[in-house]
Amino acid sequence: MQSFLASCIVAVVIAVGAVIVLNKVQEPVESAFTSPTGVRI
């Protein structure tokens, strides 16, 4: 039973870490789909 609870806790920690990392990596759509000259693609 302890190993099951430990694996659930580890899964939650990994999921929260992934959410934090993905929120830092993703760009807003306005900046992701514009060129450096300001022309929208």
Structure characterization notes:
This protein has two helices and no strands. The model has no long low-confidence stretch (mean pLDDT 82). The chain is mostly helical. It has helices at residues 2-25, 29-32. The longest helix is centred in the first third of the chain and has 24 residues, at 2-25.
Brief rundown of the structure:
The chain is 68% helix and 0% strand. With 41 residues, the protein is mainly α.
In DSSP terms (H or I, runs of 4 or more residues), the helix count works out at: 2
Work out the number of β strands. 0
Low-confidence stretches: none
Radius of gyration: 18 Å
Task: Name its key features.
41 residues, mainly alpha
Secondary structure blueprint with pairings:
Blueprint: H1 2-25, H2 29-32
